[in-house]
Amino acid sequence: MTRIHDLAVVGAGPAGVAGALTAALAGLDVVLLDGAARPGGQYFRRPAEGFRAARPGALHHGLDGFTRRWDLLTERAEVLLRHRVWAVEHTGETVVLRCLEGDREERPRTVTARGLLIATGAYDRPLPFPGWDLPGVLTAGAAQALLKGDLVLAGREIVVAGTGPFLLPVAAGLADAGGRVVGVYEANGRFGLAAHPMLVAGRAGEALGYGARLARHRIPYRGRRAVVAAHGDTALTHVTVATLDAAWRPVSTTTVACDTLACSYGFVPQLDLPVQLGCATRRDHDGSAVVTVDASMRTSVPGVYAAGESTGVGGAVLAEVEGRLAGRSAVTDLGRSAASGPGRSAVVGLGRSTGRAAFPPASIGPADLVPVDPSGPVPPDRPDPAAGRPDPALTRRRDRLAAFARALQEAYPVRPGWQDWLRDDTLVCRCEEVPLSAVREAQAMGAADARSVKLLARPGMGWCQGRMCGYAVACLAGEDPAPARRPIAQPIRLGALASQTGPETAQADPEAARPGAEPFPTEPPVSPAGPDRPEPPRDRPHRKDER
Amino acid sequence: MRGPYDLVRARPEPGFEISVDGVGVPVIPGQTIGAAMHGAGIRSWRTTRFGGRPRGLFCGIGVCFDCLVTVNGVPSLRACLTEARPEDRVTTGAAGDTGDTGDTGDSGDTAEIGDPGDLGDDGGSDGGGAVSGP
């Protein structure tokens, strides 16, 4: 008999851990899954245990608080690290997560729960430019991941370029760790720190802190400049830095020698799972598709919640608050019937909350920057009866943080002049090696939208399935990027796919086959042929896999 | 000069070596294959199918698939996600050579990759499709 958890949480970053802990403290039977070997997601990525780091928090704001919450969670919930979720299905009253366990063994595993919290975070949103596929050109997130997770410096002489506040901690972290950061180039206007949006929201400490660190390392921080080309034969040797006009068109250029470039032009929320479930999405201020949620982090699909970057990019502190709100909603929605099970009645029986101590107070203040845990550990097995009730202070805090995130997105937009950086032979799609000229040819042949461009010229049809080029292709086609529909969220070997979608699976989930029982549309069985699957172009070599 | 280890006061456990195309690359337990290679100064480890362009790490978090390697004969693993293990034998090459016999997974909107039994490349030096490891 398949075990059915109350709540499954996908993502062990700030949002997922906060949501899982909130629900677990309230007595729900929680399972949390993450593909990585260690918790933390991207923000709280920590060095491998083999480093025996005495001060892992030197690389993060607020790691100690996160670690405490993680430790509390592991005592109260089933935690499945190294589990990559590649598909999710609704089977009426439950959600079935199909996972692969292990980073190379890939043992199939299925997890079933009555509710689902999606906290899958985001990844870097790169912009193409000539030479962006040269080794040595990385996303800023890659430079961060190498440093935080593996204690590897991305390079010796590093340029950081892009737009947004993420450039600052990336540059400061690399410099603190001994890298020589040659320059930080912010494509939007250069902010005197007094005009920095962080100050507007009362984040003087954080902004000044990074500014001081850059100054201490003598790192130039230049506005209205961007890396518009990367050069080198087999690896990066230098970059072209352009001064930009207000639309980001190059005005003049200089050359900067470096062996590494870390680029960041925002983030792409990871929406594969909510899109599979049919959750409504909306356009966020930065142009990204995000999951639509209500004030309690409920998606449009009953029993499915979302928190963190998948509902709009806003950083780790907002993600944690959203995770807590989502956890409370899950307790409200799922707790009543959970209370009918053995030992669950305690959920409504206890008086004062003790579980809240796992989180910082819900006030605006320095805790927004550095989550702190003001009290000691929570006694085990003491549920939090307040978790199912609305928390106006927490909601207000989310509103304030979300408004701040919106202000940042509006202060650091991607402006259309980046398209002038491209040459005809600049690859737009790295995987399928589609140059700009092919995109333009497709448009000349009548491809009026991104999907038609993709069908004709193949950008977004390779390994990464448009995760890297989707934004750029959408911009080149003159539209906002649509949420990508990917029936398979993670690569899966065909054998594992067959073993998880065969008849045995259908028998294991009889609910799935019951006609008319689902209150919402159930996804068809996952198939290697997506609904969106285009015909292969006629003028390219026919490949074996294009059957 | 201060480095990442000083910053977090790391006292690493004894490391081990993996073999990358026959060359030893040092690893601290828990590091990914991609990080170990990048840290050892190896910046690219495959070439693209059409343009023969060199590729190594790009996104670093498992999204872009630029960093594919063959490990102990298992093709098309993302080096940035795959934790190194003692005795690992990493082989690099063209994307079309990393164990796939044409089945590179770019079939429409899915991202499945070649069946592990579908080897037959020069990288499977351990032979067979069995997933190996200590």
Automatic annotation (TrEMBL), chain A:
Residues 532-547 have a biased composition (Basic and acidic residues). Signal peptide: none annotated. It holds the Pfam family Pyr_redox_2. The keyword Repeat does not apply. Residues 360-394, 495-547 are annotated as: Disordered. Keywords: Oxidoreductase. It comes from the Bacteria. PANTHER family: ANAEROBIC GLYCEROL-3-PHOSPHATE DEHYDROGENASE SUBUNIT B. This is NAD(P)/FAD-dependent oxidoreductase. The lineage of its organism: Bacteria, Bacillati, Actinomycetota, Actinomycetes, Streptosporangiales.
UniProtKB/TrEMBL annotation, chain B:
The keyword Oxidoreductase applies. Residues 83-134 are annotated as: Disordered. Pfam families: Fer2_4. Keywords: Oxidoreductase. Residues 125-134 have a biased composition (Gly residues). Residues 107-116 have a biased composition (Low complexity). This is Proline dehydrogenase. It comes from Streptosporangium longisporum.
